[in-house]
Amino acid sequence: MAEQRIRQYRNTCGTFSYQAKLNAKMRVLWDVMSSVNAQLKQALSLIKQGDVIEAQRLLRSILRTHDDNADAWVLMAMSLSDSEKKRKALENALKIDPAHKQANKLMDQLNQSDPEDIDPRLLQAVDLIHAGKLERAAKLAAAVIHQDKMNVDAWWVMANALERDGEIMGALRNVLRLKPDHIEARKWLQELESKKLARFQEDEEPEWIARFALAEAYNQVNFNTSDAGDGGSSTSTRKKKRPNKRRLSIGSQRSIRRKMFIVVGLILTFIIIMAIGLFLSQNRDTGRSPALIEDLDAQGVQMGTIGFGQTVSGTLPDDSTVHAWTFFGEQDVTIVLETNAEIDTALTLLDADEDEVASVDNISVENHNARLEISLPTSGIYTVLIKSMLGGGVYQLVLR
């Protein structure tokens, strides 16, 4: 009887132990799936915002450990611009789940679309570029981009239609953001960056040449006066070795040195005054602190493009992060940029050369949103920088 009770007790404990282990495994599996679903939602949000590079990075990290997730493969296909890579990702999703609705829909669209089918406006823009009518070509490309900001061909045509190096570099960066393996765009961008660096070095060289020339002249004068001083210590009966060179007296040496020190002092004073004036002009009162100006110059995170009549959103993790949105604007067109956020926001508008056009902070003391209304000085690509003045939070940005 006692042995029967002991056997029954052991069987009961074994059942409870197995159930506990099973529950623990189910909890771990549930936590993993919840984490994956949260990452998939984040990737979808990044794709909608146009940040396909960050979305692909996040999806690759998911597929390394969960390559049997059909939703991850579908999102990867949505983020890709290359038709062959998109088809391969969709095939992987359908192998896992042949009845996946979104995967079948995207595959049907891919099979029906012609890879050589390009928007007729882009073909017309290419003809205008060959004819030298760049401004009209840029307007056509901008119209296509306004409808489809993920169109790589439109950004490539836009880069060929623009004339200013800064605007071209902005369009090429968008091409590479959407298609990192675009060889021609990457080569052209590297050439423009090298050209910009060479121009900067050429602008700086004359100042350094002038400084070295001044130092050389000063050293030469000191050397000559020293030789003259050594020669003046000899006796008057000694025969001059260089009768054609005038010897300098002690008073003349001091006078030349004093004049040279005065000239050098005036030049250094002028350089210091010019540097202070340049610093003050760059950091004049624009309603922002110098620290904010440095943060905005850093450009921050490139979020994507924004079109007229469109509202985009984002999340600033803290007050040290800057988000950048780009759009194409035409000369003398009045635009309105306005934020709707639960945080105190500031806006700064940059042109294609990354020069500040305008900036605003609060609409009023009570309203911490920012509103910027301005008539654009030139046609080209503009960048809107948005920053939180205190803490982080969600914001919405509208362009009208």
Write the layout of secondary structure elements.
Elements: H1 2-49, H2 52-65, H3 70-79, H4 83-96, H5 101-112, H6 120-130, H7 134-147, H8 152-161, H9 165-178, H10 183-232, H11 250-282, H12 290-297, E1 301-305, E2 310-316, E3 322-329, E4 334-341, E5 345-350, E6 356-360, E7 371-375, E8 380-388, E9 393-399
Parallel strand pairs: 1-3
Antiparallel strand pairs: 2-9, 3-8, 4-7, 4-9, 5-6, 5-8
Helix pairs in contact: 1-2, 1-3, 2-3, 3-4, 4-5, 6-7, 6-8, 7-8, 8-9, 9-10, 10-11
Explain this structure.
This protein has 400 residues and is of the alpha+beta class. It has four domains: 2-112, Alpha Horseshoe (Serine Threonine Protein Phosphatase 5, Tetratricopeptide repeat); 120-188, Alpha Horseshoe (Serine Threonine Protein Phosphatase 5, Tetratricopeptide repeat), CATH 1.25.40.10; 196-232 and 251-282, no CATH class; 290-399, Jelly Rolls (Sandwich), CATH 2.60.120. The chain contains twelve helices and nine strands. It has helices at residues 2-49, 52-65, 70-79, 83-96, 101-112, 120-130, 134-147, 152-161, 165-178, 183-232, 250-282, 290-297, and strands spanning 301-305, 310-316, 322-329, 334-341, 345-350, 356-360, 371-375, 380-388, 393-399. The strands form two sheets. Strands 1-3-8-5-6 form a five-stranded mixed sheet. A four-stranded antiparallel sheet has the order 2-9-4-7, with no helix packed on it. The chain is globular and about 95 Å long.
